[in-house]
Amino acid sequence: MESQFNDNPEDPVFYAPFQSAFLDEFFNGQTVEVTFTRGMPNNSSRPADQGNAEGFFESGDRIVLKFCSTDEPTYQFFRTFDAQQGTNGSPFSAPSNIISNIEGGLGIWAGYAAAYDTLYAMP
Predict the structure, then answer these.
(1) pLDDT along the chain (123 residues), means of 10
(2) What CA–CA distance (Å, rounded) separates 15 from 44?
(3) What is the model's pLDDT at position 116?
(4) Where are the beta strands (DSSP E) in the chain?
(5) pLDDT, position 111
(6) How far is CA 50 from CA 7, 46, 54, 107, 121, in A?
(7) Fewer CB within 10 A of the terminal residue: the chain, N end or C end?
(8) Element spanning 83, H or E
(9) What three-state secondary structure class fits 85?
(10) Measured between alpha carbons, how far is 102 from 115 in angstroms, rounded to an integer?
(11) Contact predicate 58/81, CB 8 Å
(12) What is the dihedral of CA 3, 39, 23, 28, to 10 degrees?
């Protein structure tokens, strides 16, 4: 497999795709097919993050998926955080408050279990 990798640089951290937090109550314990866009750093100027390539994987990319199990308060934080980011400051969108479990502050005190899987983007 090593010879099939492309020359794209490996990301130093995991970049979550937009709205990557979801409840599993409808398919818990079942097989389900999902799609993901490629996560990227904010305000990225990398060529792979510009134009028509934005959000897509390229043939030969090694994709490491990280799935995390959380409790309800942690999910609510990430769900409301994603909703706030999605409004992008638009005056026409409904306001959303980020749910936090930090008293007197904004953020999340959380623990979660992670599972990893590695895939290769092949044509």
Answers:
(1) 59 76 81 80 77 81 86 87 77 81 87 89 81
(2) 12
(3) 92
(4) 62-69, 113-120
(5) 86
(6) 17, 7, 5, 30, 19
(7) C
(8) helix 72-87
(9) helix
(10) 26
(11) no
(12) 0
Q: How far is CA 36 from CA 14, 20, 21, 45, 48, in A?
A: 13, 8, 12, 21, 16
Residue keyed to tokens 């097919």? 33
Contacts 24+ apart (CB under 8 A), 36-45: 36/65, 39/14, 39/15, 40/15, 41/15
pTM exceeds cut of 0.90: no
Written as six digits, the tokens of 120 are 């290769």
Beta-carbon contacts of 91 under 8 Å, excluding residues fewer than 6 positions away, are none
Please name which of 3, 17, 117 lies closest in space to residue 60, comparing C-alpha atoms. Answer: 3
| CA triple 104-108-111, angle to 5 deg | 140
Token code pair at residue 106: 């904004």
| Residue 83 identity | A
Q: Which residue has the tokens 């990893």?
A: 116
- Per the document, the length of the chain is 123
How many Å is the Cα radius of gyration of the chain? 17
